[in-house]
Amino acid sequence: FAASLPPGWLFRDLAPDYGLDGIVEVFDECGVASGHLFFVQLKATDDTSIEKSLDVRLDTRTLNYYSLLVLPVLLTVFHSPTQALYARWVDKSPPARGAKSATFRLSVGDKWGPDRFDSIVRDLEFVRAATEVGNRAQRIEQYYSHRRFMNHAGKSSDPPHQVYRFNRGER
Question: What are phi and psi of 42, to 5 degrees?
């Protein structure tokens, strides 16, 4: 997989393997870090049936672990008979309650190659933007929650500040 990455993308092995085999860091054409990172789970098969080969069963514990991660996970399958590599983002929704595993179906359209690199970067930009918006909303809520707490901390039941009512210009 590392050899299939564009120049400037760096693959690092993760050991020990806890359901993730590596992490990729994306650098731009000038070698400047973009801040885009993603995890990779590598699978391989000798099965001659491409359809069967692209059905990957993942254990519920692994899926639960993935759902805790901030970074996205790229599931890759190396199909040995054709020497082709396929890749797709893992859906981080929790598995069905009581399920011991879930099957991810990659398609022939998920074939890995240079034509996929720009879309990977776009996906990572979307993840970053979504995370920033979520973090911003969370920080705002935490600020107001903290402010409400501080306004009421150690005070009597009186309001923490003067209350103004604006009815026809009266106070």
Answer: -100, 135
